[in-house]
Amino acid sequence: MINTLKEVVSIESVTDRGEGGYPYGSGPAKALDYMLKKAEELGFRTKNADHEYGYAEIGQGDDIIGILGHLDVVPAGSGWDTPAFEATEKDGRVYGRGTIDDKGPMVAAMYAMKDILDQGKPLNKRIRMIFGQTEEKGDWDDIEAYKANEELPVCGFTPDAMFPALYGEKGILFVEIAMPLKDSGLEEASAGSAPNVVPALCTLKVGGDTIEGTGKSAHGSTPWKGENAIADAVEKAERAGKAGKFTEMYSKLFSGSHHGEKCGVPFEDEASGKISVNPGLLESEGEQVRLTLDIRYPVTYTSEDVFEGLRKTLEPYGVEMKVVHDLHHVYMPKEGPVMDALLGAYRDVTGDMSEPIVIGGGTYARGMDNIVAFGPVYPGQESVEHIANEYVGIDHMNELREIYRRALENLLKDQDSISLQICSR
Question: Which sign does the torsion angle of CA 61, 124, 158, 40 carry?
């Protein structure tokens, strides 16, 4: 299992549409080929749909229990102590981009499937692992292609969030704010690799001078865990007497604020807490400078509420705004046969009786009905996805394998802990 993890982590599978003649680039295609070949070696049946998506399955029957995960990763970024795409084992951990998000959990779940297969018992349902390749980009064409062409799971999980399980996910909205470069006070601007990452480096060219801002990367759903380099560069520009329309807008509406207090969207609710706003991407191109926000909004609000609040606040700055990504929230009852099956497995292995939660991250649970986000991060565990020195513990991988095996066994039961008829469409 650990060797499989090392090999797939060492594939640089950042989505790059069309590169190499593949739908999502040669890196994701290579990772998919590797995992499907490994699954065949383990005794699974597989399908590769022209590298749009792929799956591996075991068992028989009409009903499918789905495991949805992704093989693409965010770019490496800076600050690594080991090569991001050469998996390194040290001190009981494996370091590398994708070890926890999401290659490690997918490998653990695949070997949990292998453990069930090795028991030699007839399975009257199929367990199907579905490999996505563009989850990090947020458009999820891979899942849409799967749904258009394949049988849908009646229930299942995505191992791409945290334990004990998620019963809700905030809405995700990417908004691009464009200001004419000639009015901005900037000559050039660059920061960030993706909207859903707190940028660690920012470069502004103002009045012939180059100003560099530094920060600390974090996941865009938890921007308070990082330090935004754009804010640092803006502050340095203002201290140098080089303020302009853009720096004024950023300083007043976004610097030092993570929950929309300054930019007109201070939304929160009891179920899911406060909104989060991450200015994740800044770029100057042609006649515009563009700032892209990654916004995670509470489950009782709509993307229209958020966009209108931003529009009113930003109107005085003469900007143009557009939605570049809109993924509606997920909210489901805490009780139910799927949740019971997953929580039972987690609690049996860990002894932790924590209740399921709501998060700001977006998972493939949004992509199909009756799918629950389940692991891999424990309550209180350090979050290392999307940052330098991402890792997964080897003991953690072994525990994930056991939790996912027990969860699948619970979902396979006919009458004991779950009835698949209840959660089917």
Answer: negative
DSSP readout, 154-186? Answer: SEEEE-SEESS-EEEE-EEEEEEEEEEHHHHT-
Q: What is the pLDDT of residue 414?
A: 54
Cβ(169)–Cβ(160) below 8 Å: no
pTM of the model: 0.74
Q: Cβ(138)–Cβ(363) under 8 Å?
A: no
361-388 pLDDT tens trace = 778 888 888 888 999 999 999 989 999 9
Parallel/antiparallel/unpaired status of strands 166-169 and 357-359: parallel
Contacts of residue 340, defined as CB under 8 A and 6 or more positions apart, other chains included, come to: 410, 417, 418
Domains, the chain, ranges and CATH? 2-169+331-423 (3.40.630.10), 171-327 (3.30.70.360)
C-alpha 211/C-alpha 204 separation (Å) is 5
Residue 131 is classified by DSSP as E
Q: Dump strand ranges (E) for 20-81.
A: 45-48, 54-59, 64-70
